[in-house]
Write a structure and sequence with these properties.
The complex is a heterotrimer of chains A (330), B (317) and C (252). Chain A is mostly helical and 330 residues long. Chain A has one domain: ABC transporter involved in vitamin B12 uptake, BtuC (Orthogonal Bundle). Helices cover 78% and strands 0% of the residues of chain A. The longest helix of chain A is centred in the first third of the chain and has 35 residues. The radius of gyration of chain A is 20 Å and the shape is globular. In chain C, 34% of the residues lie in helices and 28% in strands. Chain C is globular, with a radius of gyration of 18 Å. The termini of chain C are far apart. The relative contact order of chain C is 0.17. Classes of the chains: A mainly alpha (330), B mainly alpha (317), C alpha/beta (252). Chains in contact: A-B, A-C. The interface between A and C is large, with 34 and 46 residues.
């Protein structure tokens, strides 16, 4: 018996360490490539470096947010083919932004400093998202596909409502929110970087501290309750973190629907671990690596900076269909 | 059976409203004396009214058909990759043969729409049969994937503006005389479907039942595929895809009247026309003198209706 | 002892349980039986706080389940629902190890590992310990979940239709192990059983539910009578005896 247990323990103990170390090296390499590749000498060297560092930070931030939020969300939803975006999280954020600008007016709200505006937006987002999606997921657990479909349609509803408000409101106000409605890795919102970075760091740390509870949550509701997990509280807390992270990535680059799917799929596949202590850092590293590497490839090598988000979405969608056909929806 | 007269009345009222509301004053009683009003009516208001009604009716019928083809209530031509397929076809012919005549463009768009819908059917055939809700999810994702191909190609060729009008929320402000007539083809396809209504009703009961009743399943499938694709392609080219019409209207009618398609298809068409006319009117009135795309109103209203359908208690047990 | 007082329950407006008041004795194997839709699973899930209590009170070994923190309850009772499909890709040994989570909250000790090893041994799962759960048969997965509940090492063990997916020999072996838990370790077990003869052969105490109410309760010989069972299942049922225990004969 003892043999069987150690056998089980050995790959689980060693493999993740190597995988995480490898991923960290890869990220470091890609980041170095991003920073110094093709960097000329001369007077504007410092300026270019600063520009690149800003973008690197933004890409890393979004990659980590998407990775960690997707893995967390998939655990809460007990489903490996979902992302917060598919379920309408980012659409809710865009709607919220639009509604705030529309109702509070361009002078009052949009006139606030970007940081204060962002912080109040994400505070509201956490409240709304955890209430709405918490209800949906706690109530909908009996019929998971219906819950997914509800989320997808809610996303459409939020997007339509945001579009409606955008059309109805003042064009000057609309321009304020329009930038946030489409994904772009080129037009990064740099003013938000420090505060977004701080929020991401806190949320990721909080998620990592929850990892043991997330492990139990992954066993399903009945088992988690039987093991004494405060199921509802953990679900709400996890969804709040997801809402935070989605707000950050949506505010910085805009909505990315399927990217998280690839990241979470890779994190599960590479680590082959069910431990969130391993999965969450792996997902963060993978997300950042793909975004930085992808942007480097598309922007510097292919000269088609605009298309990375489209390609990522395409690949993510295909991956989703593949998972669906392989019967991994459950 | 008081649904039919009620809908007919609503249709007539909305049609009259659609004719009279707008920037230029049109008084239907004074037409004889007012040549300008007559011109507005014939060249702009009437085409628009017809375009809206035809679109609503044809898309709703297409919704019934696709739901019978996949045997699932929660799909529509806007969530089966059909519209995105049509857009891809249009994009291809715009790039490779920009000078080609209109009929050829329509044929290509319809064929591409058919191919995308066939792909959807192939995908869902491989899904586990009991997972009813997976079918619409697969359709939505497939639409997204084909849509991202469209976006990618359009971006490369600087044609994003076209894609915006095809797949963005449907808008009827461009429907004037000479610019909307293709929709009659969509209407024709819907009538064709009505002639074969019994076959689709039987198809909805499942392959084995259909075969047992001596129906050629493949032939009916092909007919349905053709009708759905033609309707969608015409709508995409003339006014742009409208969300939720083909999804919600068949569900609402089936809930009230059941699934005897020979009886219900005319009601479905009528109800679709009523819904889209109403949305178009709202879109024209709410920020007058400007307009919103009717598709935007439908996005909100349709999503709400769909969520209600999804979560209402089942009628029995 | 589990005390149930005036418990009623509705699901989506439909009444499932009406004013149930009863006791499950400690140190016994209690079987909940009844026809489909009688409410036996709901009652077990209410005791195990898998469903929120709507009306009434339930106390498990003196702990009111409505007021006792859920992690405290996890050290008093282990409950296994019917839904055992899990999203994460776990090895069997890893799954069983989660049974110790209420005790160590993420930091297992040597004692915890010993409990896990014992649970795996008890349910004869050693050869499967390294296999992933999604590579196991339904019956094997079922046994793994029961082993997890066993590893929780609680006074009470509640199982909702644990014989689903099990063939005759594994069903028998499971009932024998539950019996041994009661007889040798003094634990208390409550199971929902679909097949009434398993209750006849192994239970000390039977609660028969019909249409959300208790029709009868007590020792097997008192409950499993021809008259009562025929009423319970609305079908003529004859009783025989085998090795001193009642045997339910449903051959018309």
């Amino acid at each position: 018996m003892a043999e069987a247990l150690t056998l089980a323990a050995r790959p689980a103990a060693l493999r993740p360490v190597w995988v995480l170390a490898g991923l960290a090296c890869l990220l470091a390499a890609v980041s170095a490539l991003w920073m110094w590749q093709g960097l000329g000498g001369g007077g504007n060297r410092g300026f270019v470096l600063g520009l690149r560092a800003n973008k690197l930070a933004a890409l890393a931030l979004v990659g980590v947010s998407v990775g960690v939020s997707t893995v967390t969300f998939q655990t809460v939803a007990a489903n490996r083919v979902l992302t917060p975006s598919i379920m309408g999280f980012d659409a809710l954020y865009v709607l919220l932004q639009t509604a705030l600008v529309a109702s509070l007016g361009i002078a009052g709200f949009a006139g606030l400093p970007a940081t204060a505006k962002f912080l109040s937006e994400i505070a509201l987002m956490v409240l709304l998202a955890s209430a709405l999606f918490g209800t949906l997921m706690l109530q909908g657990a009996r019929d998971i596909p219906r819950m997914i479909l509800t989320g997808v349609i809610l996303g459409v509803l939020f997007r339509s409502l945001a579009g409606f408000m955008g059309r109805v409101m003042d064009p000057a106000q609309y321009a304020v929110v329009q930038a946030a409605s489409f994904a772009s890795f080129n037009r990064v919102n740099a003013t938000l970087l420090p505060v977004a970075g701080a929020v991401t760091l806190l949320a990721v740390l909080a998620a990592w501290r929850m990892s043991a509870r997330l492990d139990v949550l992954a066993l399903g509701r009945d088992a988690a309750v039987s093991l004494g997990l405060r199921h509802q509280a953990v679900v709400i807390a996890a969804l709040s973190l997801v809402a935070l992270l989605v707000s950050v990535s949506t505010a910085v680059v805009g909505p990315v629907a399927f990217f998280g799917l690839i990241v979470a799929g890779l994190a599960h596949g590479l680590t082959r671990s069910a431990s969130h202590g391993v999965l969450l850092p792996a997902a963060g590293l993978i997300g950042a690596t793909i975004l930085i590497g992808g942007q480097w490839l598309f922007e510097r090598q292919l000269g088609q900076a605009a298309t990375l988000s489209v390609v990522v979405e395409f690949a993510g969608g295909l991956f989703f269909l593949y998972l669906l056909l392989k019967g991994r929806i459950r | 059976m008081r649904i039919l007269p009620a809908l007919s009345l609503a249709l007539i009222a909305l049609m009259l409203a659609s004719l009279t509301i707008g920037a230029a004053q049109v008084d239907l009683r004074m037409l004889r004396q007012d040549p300008l009003a007559m011109l507005v009516l014939v060249e702009s208001r009437l085409p628009r009214m017809l375009a809206v009604a035809l679109t609503g009716a044809a898309l709703s019928v297409a919704g019934v058909l696709i739901q019978a083809l996949v045997r699932n209530r929660f799909v529509g031509p806007d969530t089966s990759g059909t519209a995105e397929g049509a857009a891809l076809g249009l994009l291809a012919i715009t790039i490779w043969a920009p000078a080609s005549p209109l009929w050829l463009r329509m044929v290509v768009a319809s064929l591409a729409a058919m191919a995308a819908t066939a792909l959807f059917l192939a995908v869902i055939r491989r899904l586990p049969a009991r997972e009813v809700m997976l079918v619409p999810i697969a359709g939505i994702i497939l639409s997204g994937v084909v849509g991202s191909v469209v976006t990618f190609v359009a971006w490369q060729h600087d044609l994003m503006q076209f894609v915006g009008t095809w797949l963005g929320s449907g808008e009827f402000s461009g429907a004037i005389a000479g610019r909307y007539e293709l929709l009659w083809i969509a209407g024709g396809a819907a009538v064709l479907a009505w002639l074969a209504a019994d076959r689709f009703a039987i198809l909805g009961l499942g392959d084995s039942v259909a075969t047992g009743l001596g129906l050629s399943v493949d032939a009916v499938m092909r007919l349905g595929l053709l009708a759905v694709s033609v309707v969608t392609a015409m709508v995409v080219t003339t006014v742009g895809m409208l969300p939720f019409v083909g999804l919600v209207v068949p569900n609402l009618v089936a809930r009230l009247m059941g699934d005897n398609l020979r009886q219900t298809l005319p009601v479905v068409a009528l109800a679709g026309a009523v819904l889209v006319l109403a949305c178009d009117l709202v879109a024209r009135v709410v920020v007058a003198p400007y307009e919103l795309p009717a598709g935007l109103i439908l996005g909100v209203l349709g999503a709400g209706l769909f969520l209600w359908l999804l979560h209402r208690r089942p009628a029995h047990g | 002892m589990i005390e149930i007082r005036a418990v009623s329950h509705r699901i989506a407006g439909t009444p499932i349980l009406h004013d149930i008041t009863t006791r499950l004795p400690e140190g016994r194997l209690t079987a909940l039986i009844g026809p489909n839709g009688a409410g036996k699973s709901t009652l077990l899930r209410l005791i195990g706080r898998l469903e929120p209590l709507q009306a009434g009170r339930i106390r498990v070994a003196g702990h009111d389940i409505a007021t006792t923190p859920t992690d405290r309850l996890a050290q008093v009772m282990a409950v296994l629902g019917q839904q055992t499909l899990i999203a994460s890709r776990l090895r069997l040994a890893e799954l069983v190890a989660f049974g110790r989570w209420p005790h160590h909250k993420g930091r297992p000790t040597a004692a915890d590992r010993a409990h896990v090893a014992e649970a795996i041994r008890t349910f004869a799962l050693d050869p499967l310990a390294d296999r992933f759960m999604d590579e196991l048969s339904g019956g094997q997965a079922q046994r793994a979940h029961i082993a997890m509940a066993f590893a929780q090492d609680t006074e009470w063990l509640l199982l909702d239709e644990p014989l689903n997916n099990l063939d005759m020999s594994h069903a028998r072996a499971l009932m024998a192990r539950l019996r041994a838990l009661v007889d040798r370790q003094g634990r208390s077990v409550a199971v929902v059983l679909h097949e009434v003869n398993y209750a006849a052969a192994w239970a000390d105490h039977i609660i028969a539910l019909k249409d959300g109410s208790i029709l009868a309760e007590g020792a097997p010989d008192a409950v499993l009578t021809e008259e009562l069972l025929s009423r319970l299942y609305d079908a003529p049922i004859a009783m025989g005896r085998h090795q001193g225990r009642p045997l339910v004969l449903h051959h018309a």
